[in-house]
Amino acid sequence: xxxxxxxxxxxxxxxxxxxxxxxxxxxxxxxxxxxxxxxxxxxxxxxxxxxxxxxxxxxxxxxxxxxxxxxxxxxxxxxxxxxxxxxxxxxxxxxxxxxxxxxxxxxxxxxxxxxxxxxxxxxxxxxxxxxxxxxxxxxxxxxxxxxxxxxxxxxxxxxxxxxxxxxxxxxxxx
Length: 174
Hints:
Blueprint: H1 14-32, H2 34-60, H3 66-72, H4 83-93, H5 99-104, H6 107-115, H7 121-134, H8 141-162
């Protein structure tokens, strides 16, 4: 888990900076909650194995078509934490920074909520991240920058907390 302020510098496109910030939050959360996720993975593996065995029996009995069996085998092998979980956790943990309220006022988040099924900041950021990561959406660079500037203090505060320090949001320069 690393935090590289250089990678978040002004010479980087806001899209790259946003993706790095979100990736850091996800990775940090996964690392921090690894015991919980290990237990979830064990449970998921048992349930997946049991379900696949039942589906195979159905296939062998002719109750599933080849296509249905092919789709059934695509059940994810890994139970992974979501970006939404990570964002919710850190927004609550560092609620004194008021990041959620600030993000909620950005043009990008307002537009995503207005034009999609997203109903809050966490869902909107997840939608933006997925669109950018998969190349299915583009967003105005200035709007992305506004989100980056509001999200960066959250990442910085968490990083400093992990190091045993404290964070003053007013000290962050853009």
